[in-house]
Every structure is written in structure tokens, then in C-alpha cells.
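Exercise 7. Predict the joint structure of the components listed below.
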Amino acid sequence: MDLLLNLGLGFETALTPINILYCFIGVLLGTLIGVLPGIGPTATIAMLLPITLSLSPVTALIMLAGIYYGAQYGGSTTAILVNMPGESSSAVTAIDGYQMARRGQAGHALAAAALGSFFAGTGATLVIAVLAPPLTDVALKFGPAEYFSLMFLGLITSVALAHGSIVKALAMVVLGLLLGLVGTDIYTGTPRFTLGFIELSDGINFVAVAVGIFGIAEILRNLENEHEREVGTQPIGRLMPGKAELKQIAGPVLRGTALGSLLGVLPGGGHILASFASYTVEKRISKTPERFGKGAIEGVAGPESANNAGAQTSFIPMLTLGIPSNPVMALMIGAMIIQGIAPGPNVAADEPALFWGIIVSMWVGNLLLVILNLPLIGLWVRLLKVPYFVLFPAILAFSAIGIYSINSNAFDLFAVSVFGILGYVLVKCECEPAPLLLGFVLGPMLEEHLRRAMIISRGDPTVFVTRPLSLALLILAVGVLVVVLLPAIARKREKVFIEED
Amino acid sequence: MTANRKDLTAGLLFIAIAALFALGALGQDLGTPRKLGPGAFPLLLSGILALLGAAVALKAFRTPAGGPVTIPWRGILLILVGPIIFGLTIRGLGLLATVALIVAVSTYASRRMSLWLSLAITIGLTAFCMLVFHLGLGLPIRLIGPWLSGAGLAAFGSGG
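Solution:
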């Protein structure tokens, strides 16, 4: 069977000592930043991306992936113990998890989150392994028109799933697309929007944009109100769940895994949606919905599984189509390009060891997370006490060194400051930065496919609606846009995102 | 007439950026539908961005003005000069002094900073960075730059 052969190759790659080591470093760093509020996976991966350039591509991507799902995991620890979700996707976990902690059942909540996540990670790894090859086959039949429509759909979905105003999110996408076009035009070789800077002829440095908008802007926002973090010191309680608890969480974990795997594929942050959806489902089908919000273990197990499954299946569009579904995936694509690998459906065929190695390493990483986290929880809690005034100079120094090490180019550092202030102003104006970064990565690809499609169709723009697959994708995109703009849905959507904040 | 400052700022910012890109795009060849030039797609996008910006700005007059906004001016200044200082001094001062410099400057972005605290953080973090980046990862950045080493000073003196 192909699947077994492929997974075998994956295990062979993922289980080399060097890859296990970097997978471990990745999940360790991920958990660390997941626990520390004020620094998220996007900023961290952007910061560490230059450092991974000295590694082989597969090792680098395994480590970066580890940071990503490690952070999802670490975020739940703080959500449960101190009611402070380290990542937005674990906001739901805090609702019931913290109540459990207050009743002295923190151990159960943590174990439910850990076991649920591990199960979900295993399930999602299998989903990726099964779904990726057929999707890759479909993707290989894509022409430029289909690619254009697919990216259009991706961008629209990211808008639909962004916080706040739809119009602002749309504007952020377009702004990102425009910024992505800065540099030399691929067809004619003429420099565009470079303002005379030779440094801009290769485009704006992607890492500088990501660090500026996600890292620096976040520091500035946190400096608005510095306050001491309060760390509760309730005893964690018994860790391992008994038979009764296992029975209680089995259903939510299964449903969460399924829901998360499905929603994670959506571009634009599906895993955040997944944890909310799972919580809603569990509350609705529960025989005792009144327990939710007061420490129901189902309300921890379900969303945590959904969140983790979603974080993993969000790799599917990135690995099979070369299209990022969230800012972290955009960074992974950036890492691939810098490493000299063209992202897209050819990756599976050209670099099978890389492709399957990454997939299997996610399972390995999840196992490491369980082993790493349950005994080390005490250490993570103590880390919460690191004051912010130690943290932000560190973030700044690491970012600066990292960015300089890519090209030894001072210009990239000036770009960080420019995008830092731009990002801060935009965030202050309630414009979410995630769609901008997606637009930035997709901008050049979108234009290339548009122009190629127009050349092939001899200047006939109807090509996008006469090819059935392209038409279907466009209809889906318009459908998504119409749905989120419907007044009833718009109100509900606002409510969901307010709860999340 | 009151307007929501956040929406207004965002809208005007989008329009201004759209105008800049449109200006740049008009300087490029637009091409034909069959062979789109380098200016075509950016011009289209600038148009869309301007329209969206206008929609955001107009909406500002229909939304209640938000409350006062706190802006950490000192933090913004001290954080943003960090990468700029780094870019300007890394070749001359080398990794050690540059990192120490930007860490020291940035610590004062916090309003609760004191001299001793800043000193402690600077020494600790700089040591940590040297350990990780110089010894651990072996980054090919000079530890001590020509501005600080004796040879550099001599070369500076004789060579001009």
C-alpha cells in the first residue's frame, strides 16, 4: 500500500536523531512562547526562521512546525491554570478549564487537554496522510485560472475569519497584495514601487514584514498598559484521569478531532473557529448543559482536540497546493522558498522525504508534547512570572540578529521599524494583520497566475468563469463573502469574536 | 460632526497608500488584456483599496467616536529606534556592543525601568545572545567591529 510506504519513508525521515532533536527544540520553544503571553507563534517563527536556514530544509520545517503546534498546546496550559489564554485559539479552554482549576481539578483539565490533543494530533496526521496525495493529484491538473480562483477563495475566507470589520479585513488583504508586488516585475524585469532603493528590487523582505507587523507591533501594544501578571497557586491535583473521566472525554475528543480536521483546512485561521465550534457542539448535545462554564471536562477536552486537529490539517493547503491558510503557513512557505523549494503540488513528488517527514514529525512532536508537558507543568507556571520588561528587549534583540543574518543587509532592519509602526497604527485602528500577511505572500503568485491565464486565453477574461473548476471556486468565494455580509450572520460573527477577545 | 477616529484614520491611511501605489502603477506599462503589463494588476488593486478605504472612512461618520486612546510614545520611540540602531552600527561596532546597545535602549521603553534593572537585563541578555548566536549557532557576524578594535582605529586614523 502506498500510504504505508509513504508513512514508512516519513518515519525514516522524522526519526533520524537530528530531526527528533530539532522537533524537540521546536515543540519546547513552541510551548514556551505559548505559555508566555505577548508573543505568539507567528512572531516567533518569523524571528527564528533565519536561524533555521543553516539546517537542511526538512529539519528546518520540522522545527518550525513544532513551534506552531507546540504553541497551540502551551496556550492551553495557561488558559487552564491562570485563566489567561496564551493563544487566541485556547480562549475557549479557559472557560471551563479555569473553573476546574479553581475547584482543585487542574490536573484533570491538563490531562484531558493533553490526551485530547495527542489523540487529535494522531487523527489529523492520518487525515493529512490520506488526503494529501489525492489533493496533490487534483492540484496538478490546475491551470493558472484555477490557481487564481483558488487563491481568491483563500483570501476571501481569511477575510471572513478575521476579527472585526469585513471591509477593513478586505482592505488589509489588498494592501498586503500590493506590498507583495514591490520589486522586479517577473515578466518584464522592470523595477516596481522600489522608490529607487536597489535593496527593494528583490521585493520587501518577507521576514521583516512579519516581524514588524506581528512582533514589534505586539510589543508596542503591550507597552500601553503594563501590569503585573497574577499567577494563581492552587495545587494542580491528581494528573492522570480515571476510567470515569476517560469515558467522559472520549466522545468530545472524537467529535473535536473530526470537527477540527475539517475546519482546519479552511484558509484564514480555521483552528480558532474549530475550538469555538466544538464547544458549542458539546454544550448543545450535553445532557447537562448547565455544567458548562462551571468546570465541565467536556468543555476542555473537545475544544482542545479540535484546536490541535485544526492546527495540523491547516498544513494540507500549504503542502498540497503551496497556498497558506494562515500567517504561520505563510511563513512556512517563505521558509521553503528561501530554502530553494518551490511550494506547490510538486513538493510531494519531488521531495517525498521532506513531505512525508514533516507529516510524520507532527505525530512525533505530539508525542513529545505529552511527554514533555505533563511532568514539566510546574516549570511552565513559574515561567509565567517572567516580567514583560525582560521579555520585550529579548524579542527585539533576537529579531534584529535574526533578520540581519539572512542577508547581512541593514536595509531589512529599517524595514522592520517601518512595518512595526505601520502594523501598530493598523492594529490600533482595529485592522487585523493576519490577512495582510497572507496577501503579501500571495500577491506575486496571484498576479503571475492572472497574467498567465490572460495570455493563455488570448486576453479573454471570461476564462475564469468558463472553466468549471475555476467557476466553482469563484462561486464558493462569492458565497462566503455574501454569507458573512448577511446582517444576521454578521451580528453573530461579531459576537463570536467579541467573546474570543 | 463627530467621527470615529479609528475608522477615519484607517480609511484615510488606506486611501493614501492606494494613491501612492496608483501613482507608481501609472508610471508603468499597463499592457493589453492579452499581455498585461507590470502596471495593470497593481492599478486594479490600488483602485479597490481606495474604494475600500473610502468605505471605511465614510463609515467613521456613522459610528460613535471611540474613547480616548493611550499611546505609549516613549515605548514607540525607544522600540522603533532599536532595529535602526542595529542596522547602522552592526558593521562598525560588531555584534557584542550593538546587541548591548539596543537592549539597553529598549529596556527604557518600560516606564518601570531603573538604572540597575536596565544594567542587569542588558548584561544578562547580551551574554545570552552571544552564547546562542555566536558560540552556539556560529553566526558569521564579527563580535567586535572595526570601530572598537585597535586596528580599526589605526586604519581609521591613517586611511581617513
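Discussion. DSSP finds five helices and no strands in chain B.
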